[in-house]
Every structure is written in C-alpha cells, then in structure tokens.
Amino acid sequence: MVDLLIIHDFIGEDNECQLCKCGLLSLWFSDIGWGVENYGTDPDIEVEITPQDYAKGVDTQLERAILEIMNSLQSNPPLLPDMSGQPSRALPRLPNL
C-alpha cells in the first residue's frame, strides 16, 4: 500500500474545460480509490491567469507561489547548523621514520 504525502501546496488554475476535449478513463486503486486518467492535480490554491495578465507577461501563479514561499519561510525559518564546533582542518603530523 502506498501512503500519499502532501509536501507542498499546489498552486495553479483548475482547467476543467480542457478535460472535456480529451478521452477520460476511470480507474480504481485499492490504496486511493477511484481516479481518472488524464486528469491533473487539483490546485490547493487556485490562481487565475487572465488574458490581460498573459498579454502583459505577468505570471500571477508564479507571483503567488513566491508569496506563499516567503510567508512559509517567515513562519518556519530554516534551521542553521551550529558552526562553533568545526573540526580542525590542519594537516596531520606525519610520524618520524
């Protein structure tokens, strides 16, 4: 059995209208139940790209993703390693032969 993990939010646009144009096949899996072939992942945060944004070259999904990452970094700052106990990098002394 495969456990499904949610690691990050999926940011995008729900393109249900595009699903009507392709053939769909229903599948059933013992671990996750019913699924549909050629059906993408539903976004956790839906961000629409308008024709005006597209014409201006503005990527609203990318901007929202960066905003979510910055908010996540503020609420969960990365842990920095303790650099005080670094090992000596001096060359070892060779024995006198």
What does this protein look like?
This protein has a domain at 45-75. The protein is built from three helices and four strands, in the order E-H-E-E-E-H-H. The protein has helices at residues 16-19, 51-56, 60-75; strands at 11-12, 25-29, 33-37, 45-46. The strands form two sheets. A two-stranded parallel ribbon has the order 1-4. A two-stranded antiparallel sheet has the order 2-3. By secondary structure, the chain is α+β, with helices and mostly antiparallel strands.
Summary keywords:
97 residues; alpha+beta; two-stranded parallel ribbon; two-stranded antiparallel sheet; 3 helices; elongated; disordered N terminus
> What string, H for helix and E for strand, traces the elements in order?
EHEEEHH
**Distance between termini?**
62 Å
Class of secondary structure makeup: alpha+beta
- If you average the pLDDT, what whole number results? 76
**Strand coverage percent:** 5-15%
Radius of gyration, Cα only, in angstroms? Answer: 25 Å
Unreliable parts: 1-7, 17-23
Main pleated sheet: 2 strands, parallel
Give the spatial strand order of the biggest sheet: 1-4
Q: Care to count the β-strands?
A: 4
Report the principal-axis shape: elongated
Helix count equals 3
As a percent range, the share of helical residues equals 25-40%
